[in-house]
Write a structure and sequence with these properties.
alpha+beta, Thiol Ester Dehydrase, Chain A, two-stranded antiparallel sheet, about 25% strand
């Protein structure tokens, strides 16, 4: 026969431990309450944004890549995006702000742009099921991260997604930093295949993807410095019309920051 006092003690202990360290399944089914998004112009929003930026800058993964300065260069995509275009961009404009993408992503790319590691914060207002980042949003993030690697392989620095395959391995909890790794599989002519994955800061695999990107035949018409500022690319040259054999055209350095 179980002693009532002992049973009570076990129950209280289990409840206390479960409250302090809730099982992942419980956290997904019953996410902690969260306040609505802050007014982007409010002092509170500015404080939260500053805190997230500070946390980003001191993450171990960020420090480790900064120590590899001879192998990787650092960039902040979207920072150089012209305002008149930024406001109509999904990830650079519409989804910016506290509770969504509070700060621009930080990207470390190999010098030859064959690999990249993106670190970004996903807020609580980017969910499908409350507390879990929407799968469609993760597909968008992967598409952009993989596209950056692919586009920088193309002579004209312009490319479009032809195919994107995604496998979701685990729920991505909101209000945390995630890591998106992308690497070139093959680049041939106007086509490039890139693979990537989303991880948490502990390295847990959340999503895997593989995509095919194509440089349009009309790339010479739309090739311009703007894509370089969007991508935060190190390269400062494009080919105006590779099919016609045009020479490389220099891009202003400020567009490649």
């Amino acid at each position: 026969m179980v002693c009532p006092a002992a049973a009570l003690a076990v129950g209280v202990t289990s409840y206390t431990v479960g409250s302090l360290y809730p099982p992942p399944l419980v956290s997904m089914i019953y996410p902690a309450p969260a306040p609505p998004p802050l007014d982007l112009a409010s002092p509170e929003a500015a404080q939260v944004t500053a805190r997230i930026e500070q946390e980003l800058q001191i993450l171990p993964i960020v420090k480790s890549f900064r120590e590899k300065g001879d192998e990787y260069y650092e960039a902040r995509p979207y920072v150089g995006y012209p305002e008149e275009r930024r406001v109509h961009s999904l990830t650079a404009g519409v989804l910016r702000g506290v509770g969504r993408f509070a700060v621009p992503p930080l990207v470390f790319s190999k010098m030859d742009d064959s690999e990249s590691v993106m670190v970004l914060h996903v807020g609580r207002s980017l969910c499908g099921h409350d507390g879990i980042v929407h799968g469609g949003l993760l597909a968008t993030l992967l598409d952009e991260a993989l596209a950056r690697v692919a586009i920088l392989q193309f002579p004209a620095r312009v490319g479009v997604t032809a195919n994107l395959n995604i496998d979701y391995r685990a729920p991505t909890i909101a209000d945390q930093f995630i890591v998106i790794r992308a690497s070139l599989v093959e680049a041939k002519g106007r086509k490039a295949t890139v693979q990537g994955r989303v991880e948490d800061l502990e390295g847990k695999l959340l999503v895997e993807a593989k995509a095919l990107f194509v440089q349009p035949k009309f790339a010479n018409i739309i090739a311009a410095p703007v894509p370089m500022s969007i991508l935060g690319a190190r390269s400062t040259e494009v080919i105006a019309n590779p099919e016609a054999g045009d020479k490389k055209v220099p891009v202003p350095q400020e567009a490649a920051v």
